[in-house]
Structure formats: C-alpha cells, structure tokens
Amino acid sequence: SLPKTPFSPLKLPFPPEQRMVLVACGPFTPSDSVAFEPLSDLLELVARDRPDVCVLLGPFLDAKHEQVESCQLLSSFSEVFQLCLRTIIEGTRGAGSQLVLVPSLRDVSHDFVYPQPPFPFPDLPKEDRA
C-alpha cells in the first residue's frame, strides 16, 4: 500500500471566480480576398463579451491563400501581416483581455521552423507588451 501523503489544495495564480476564455483559429480572411472581415467580426465579439483571455491561433496571413500564393497582394507580406497584428491589438485593447497570439507554420511572414519563435512587432507600445 502507498504511504498516505497530506493533501494540499491547488494554489491558483488567479482568484477562483469564473473566467472567460475566447479561443479562435485562423485563417482570419475569406477564401476570395485578404480583407480581414472575419477578423473584424471576431474583434467586435471580443469588444462586446470582454473575455479575460483571448487566444488567437494562426495562420493570420495564410501562405496557402490563393492571393498570397499568386503574389496578388498590393503590399508586401510583412506589411499586410503587421496590419493584421495592429488591427488585432487595437481591436482588443479596450476589452481588457489578455491577448495570446499563437503563430502557425502557415503564417506567410513567419519562420517555417518548429517551435515557432515569437512574432516580431518592434513598434508595439510598451503598455501592450506582456
């Protein structure tokens, strides 16, 4: 028989009241354009429901998107990707949510390695950095 060990309650890093976590997975564009309309709809939901944590999984700009594969974008991959990230950050700022962005191997302007490194976003204001 195993020796009895004293039970110690789990210590949570946050108060035990209910938490709301929103999780969404990309791509965040329709298949026929790189307009981030589905992303805008999602950001409206975040602003309305104000989750404690918002986890967004890439791809944010999908390398398999028809317009990306055929190089039909009006800006560079990096510029479109930075616009997407800026839209997410500005669209969730007022909700008070902790924002977690998880890159995908299919993100067009991100290194194709595993594990994925953090997103480069040098002009992100200090108050938005975790």
UniProtKB/TrEMBL annotation:
Transmembrane segments: none
Subcellular locations according to the entry: Nucleus
Listed InterPro entries: DNA_pol_a/d/e_bsu, DNA_pol_alpha_bsu
GO molecular function: DNA binding
Residues annotated as domain DNA polymerase alpha/delta/epsilon subunit B: 21-127
Pfam family, one: DNA_pol_E_B
Name recorded for this polypeptide: DNA polymerase alpha subunit B
Gene name as annotated: Pola2_1
